[in-house]
Amino acid sequence: MSVKMLDLDIAKDLTLLVNTNSACSDIWEMFTTQLQKHFNLSNIDVTLLTDDITFEKHFDEHVNLTISLYNNSLTFREQYLGALVTARKYVFHLNDDYIAYADFDVTEIEKAIKNLENNDISFVKFVRTKYDYIPSVIDDNYFHVNSYVYTQQPCIWKRDVLFNLYKDAPNTGSIGVKGDTIGHTEEHVNQVAINKKIKGVVLYKQEKKRGESHYNCSSVPLVLSALVRGKWNMSEYPELSDLLKMYKIDKNVRGTR
Question: What pLDDT does 182 receive?
Fold first, then answer.
């Protein structure tokens, strides 16, 4: 594998947590192949949060996998807490429809973990959204998050902080749909984070805006998200068309938006 590995001293404290469900099994080959092509997993602990153990067969044999198998009758809060139990000091979260399309910047990932270690922050996000950010003294490319503190986006968290946010959130709802403040776990956890005055930063290098809500990230280049309400997100990511052809996925089965 030609993609650079993380520094061993940093990698030993990191868990890559991948959230998926068998309802998205048609995306698994594309997700795992693109991820392993652009991010070297050789010395990283990888936890798969899934309801179907066959997800693991899409990863290379050398990858150190932990399966957090859940029952679909559980709330997403319960599912996620189960995966965090065995996670290491830092948790790098990805969803199954975040498709890598270029090499990850290992130096920036290492820097993020060092900054979590040495500063009074609990997370480093890799994708700026449309909301305001305050410049940080930590790094010229870091901005303090002042609105949506917790989101299901590519982000590295201090594991203990993330665990306690989920532990203290109400045990209701699923991942949910944006704007659903009643049954949306992401909204519940975000409110807990706001109440606890959790602080964190977003990495932003003046990348272009992508769609309505967020910006590209040159350090962790991902299609974000490939699926929106179950349909292929062609309106924001027209380049998905080539990826779907490469992996022989019929876009008409799910439909597009």
Answer: 45
d(CA 49, CA 51): 7
Q: Distance between CA atoms of 190 and 119, rounded to whole angstroms? A: 21
What topology does CATH give the domain 8-249? Spore Coat Polysaccharide Biosynthesis Protein SpsA; Chain A (3.90.550)
List phi, psi (to 5°) of 214. -150, 180
Sheet holding 200-203, edge to edge: 64-69, 45-50, 14-19, 90-95, 155-158, 123-125, 200-203, 142-145, 133-135
In the chain, the N- to C-terminal Cα span, in Å, equals: 35
Within 13 Å and on the Cβ side, how many CA atoms surround 164? 10
22-56: per-residue pLDDT in tens?
Answer: 999 999 999 999 999 999 999 999 999 999 999 99
Residue range 185-205: mean pLDDT, rounded = 95
**For the purposes of burial, counting CB atoms within 10 Å of the CB of 69, is it exposed (0-12), middle (13-18) or buried (19 or more)?**
middle
Amino acid letter, residue 161: V
Residue-wise pLDDT for 75-111, tens only, equals 999 999 999 999 999 999 999 999 999 999 999 999 9
